[in-house]
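for ur thesis appendix - DegP2 peptidase. Serine peptidase. MEROPS family S01B. copy paste whatever u need, i formatted it the way the template wanted (i think)
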Amino acid sequence: MKLRRVLLVVLLLVSFYLLTQHLWPTGTVAALMQRYVPSMNGSRIEHLTGPIGAFDLNVANAQPAYDSEEQNNIAVYKRVTPSVVNITSTTIAIDFFYGAVPQQGQGSGFILDKQGHILTNNHVIGENYQRVEVQLADKHKYKAQVVTVDKAHDLALLQINAPNLQPVELADSRNLQVGQKVFAIGNPFGLSGTMTRGIISAIRSVRGPNGNAIDNAIQTDAAINPGNSGGPLMNSHGQVIGINTMIASNNGADQSAGIGFAIPINTARAVLDDFSKYGHVRRPSLAITPLEIGPDLADQIGLPADYGVLIQRVLPGGAAERAGLKGGTQRAALGNTPVMLGGDFIVAIDGEEITNVQDISSVMNSHKTGDVVTVTAFRGRRRMDVKVTLGEAGNDRQI
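the 3d part is after this line
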């Protein structure tokens, strides 16, 4: 009996030695366990055999549950995608032999109401469009009517006649925060229903694709590529905060470099309000021809502040002239550019510092024609506050 016990102990010791020193390090035991013992994470081994050999695939038994962030991503996509459309604009170009050649451009847009109004960028439909077609998320196509455009803000309003449309929900684009999560849905490179995600990288004023000023543009690192133009930029609730408009790219590469820009939705809402009331956009204006002033020029001219906007000319009958503001009287030249000096020097509007023309444009975008603003300006060395009732802009060279 004692001998049997001794032999059993020796056998156990030898087995343990072989297991730990020879079999376990080579993975033999682990492989056996994986093959015959169910995994703790619910996976299983599937054996495949065929002419080229055998495979043992470790396959999950069930799809893991989505985490809260994934669930939100999925919810936003399902909610908004039916409201995003693909827009194709056909224009006629003249080839080398003076023949008419149709050319197509693509972009995105989103449904505003059940009456079929769609908002997009003006540059998506182009200048000389012959036909504009809208494709919905369900792949149905409709001919679109161009209701009106606003080139200054790079916006276009289209309309289609289609049933069961699902409009987007518009948010307030004021008080957006850098770091806030955003989503973009559109048709990059014609790939419809594409969603990308990122954050708000900055809020800054930039020049749009047609040279137009975009005040308080939403900069984002969400991937935006050709075809995304006109599509919605949304907050984490799927509410539209902007219209994707352009990208900044390196070396002219026509693809995302992580810097995209969107027109704030509040700008679009103001444009739509003018569309509905007047049939066109009534951009507010001081009706002046401006000259930006920096420290060097201010010192050279002898102005009382380092930064501001000098009034070269007040347009006859315009808001500035009616309020008593004065334009320049002295002809001069900056390099090869003729200018008029001696006019009033604007340094603030409604208490907000004015350092350049873009600052005035930003103030104008937060007001409407007929609003009264307080313009702080120097006439010579005398500082004054002047009440100005904003007029309607007549051309793109005045502010």
